Amino acid sequence: MPAGYQTLVSSYDRLFDQARTNEYNLSIRLEPDGLSFSVYSAESGIITGVESIQFPGYIPLKSGFLTQALYRENLLQLVQSHPVLKSEFKKTVILLHSQCFTIVPAPLFNPGRPASYLSFVHKNDPSAAILTHRLSALDATLVYSLDEVLYAEIANAFRSARLMHTMGAVVDTMLPRYKHSDSPEMVFLNVQAGSAGIVVLRDKTLELCNMYECQADEDMIYFLMFIMEQLSLNPEKVPVFLSGKTGKDSALYELIRRYVRYVEFDNPSGPVSRSYALSEIEKHRFVELLNPALCE
Question: Which of 14, 42, 234, 290 yields a CA-CA distance of 20 to 30 A from 58?
Answer without folding.
Answer: 290
